[in-house]
């Protein structure tokens, strides 16, 4: 008897998680950078300077976790903190030139590989994958309660 769709989905998600974990270990070992750090750099390159809170929300991490990630990226000179000219209390995170070069010169990054793979899909398939993932996340958010 064939596996149920539920089992296939769970197995596929587990396989993706294992791939991400393996990639994350290799990235840290060979590039001295983590997947969340890469995600931050990509988000900042796409959207420009962001506050820690906005950046954290956009990649689904807590602001306290984000501060540690930004500290490590800043030590590597991949990002910099810049005070707002309008509101001196506001601090924005910007990608440095070194950070831009790192991301664009790194075709081995999972983000780049995944993006290339997705580009090969038809528009219809991209829509199907995006909608299915959105639906799964929405259902998980609805059912995740600790009461």
What does this structure look like?
- With 147 residues, the chain is mainly α.
- The chain folds into 2 domains: 101 residues, Arc Repressor Mutant, subunit A; 41 residues.
- 68% of the residues lie in helices and 8% in strands.
- It contains 7 helices and 3 strands, in the order ααβααββααα.
- It has a 3-stranded antiparallel sheet.
- Helix 3 packs across helix 4.
- The longest helix has 27 residues.
- The protein is globular, with a radius of gyration of 18 Å.
| Residues in β-strands, percent | 5-15%
Distance between the termini: 37 Å
Look up the CATH topology of the largest domain: Arc Repressor Mutant, subunit A
Low-confidence stretches: none
Compute the number of structural domains: 2
Which strand order do you get reading across the main beta sheet? 1-3-2
The Cα radius of gyration reads 18 Å
CATH superfamily annotation of the largest domain: Winged helix-like DNA-binding domain superfamily/Winged helix DNA-binding domain
Total beta-strand segments = 3
